[in-house]
Write a structure and sequence with these properties.
Helices cover about 65% and strands about 10% of the residues. The protein contains 16 helices and nine strands.
Amino acid sequence: MPLQRSNTADKFIVDRRKRHRNSDVARAVRKTRDRLSQQAGNLDFDRELLKLHARAMTTGAVVIPLLVLAIAAAGRLAGVGNEIGLWALFTLTCYTTVVFMARRIDRTEASELNALQTRREFLVGHFLCGLGWAWFVWLGCGACEVDQLHAVKAVVLLSAMAGTALTASSLSGALLATFAVPVAFYVYAATRSWMPVEAIMAALLVLSLPFFAYVARHINHASLVLLSFRSEKDALIAEVETAKSMSDEARRRAEDANLAKSRFLASMSHELRTPLNAILGFSEVMANEVLGPMSNPTYRDYAHDVHDSGQHLLDLINEILDLSRIEAGRYQLNEEPVMLLNIVEDCCHMMELKARNKDIRLVQDFEQTLPRLFADERAVRQIALNLLSNAIKFTATGGEIRVRVGWTAGGGQYISIKDNGPGIPEDEIPVVLSAFGQGSIAIKSAEQGTGLGLPIVQALLAMHGGEFELHSKLREGTEAIAIFPLSRVMEELPALPTAAVAARR
């Protein structure tokens, strides 16, 4: 049967075939990509700036027209003829055209705008408005009773220039396109009469035009900075949305995998344990020759091997189930007052025969005045047995294992099991602490194992609120320390100084 492979690579957590799950993320990414693609030379956001200019012209649509109407009304009161009415009509028409153009652009999506064409249309509209202001400069009034009419015109132009510099700052060149011609007309009119006041006002207008252009350019630069910040924010939001979708998809797949694992373990544990019990029972009967002697001793050895292999497989299944229950949060602690010293001593007696077979000496160094510990006796016993079993596995014949039980510096209690075996390379310690992980030395020299002993120890200690430490040096040995916190000690004692504890050790 050919090996079935997934159509989706493992590194792509989001399933591309299920687009309905990624529609929101795709929409956010597409919108952000459109905004980021609006950059011109990675500096200017032409389309966004045009949208800002259109929005500014729309919101400030009544400012300049009101100024034009006020000027027209004042001109009629001052005695200017019908020409000022025609000027007001032409100027209002130009500004109305620009406003309608701005509203159309404001309603259009930024990605659909032609930046170059839209910019040209805006500049042409502002130039026509500038022709209206040039007409205003050229207006004369022989019958007017207003003194210094040219000074009044200069003040009006300065006001219009200031308003345009604020509203049209998002469109670079709009101020010059609007007021370059009116200022030129005013300078030309001032040179014809060459009155001192008119010359001063002309000089003021000439100096004001680059000043207001400078102000508009700085406002434009501030708009660019805000747009860049907004684009970065949108990019971060898109990344967060993508990461959230990937996380949701990964969580869903993990839940599915966990459910499949739970079903597998629930079914296979029963399916494997039933024949294993038969294998263990029958092989033990055959090895012990309960029903009669075996004529061939090799068969008896085979029966022992079958029993040992079945026992190893049963231990593996039990450890996998234990670790699965702990990871799933279904491992219930049966907490009660226990004596840590007694439990570790019993475990040492249980492992004494196994250590003696390898000529390994177990040295017990216990503090005799330890109070009771509020913990699960089965879990504590499993912690001690796992650590002792590992130490015996990795200690060479004739070695020594030192088992200590005592106080921690913080007032808790600890189990320390130190051997003088080959040790573990520093870079392999994370591997050893992971599930099914085995170091290179363990693979070469140790007895067969599952690689689940230390992960189970870590998980059981974490359920008790404790810590696990593994210290090892190559060719010097390994020390495993299981620490139970102060909160587990039933008869609380003051914490010991660190230096004093180190001296006692």
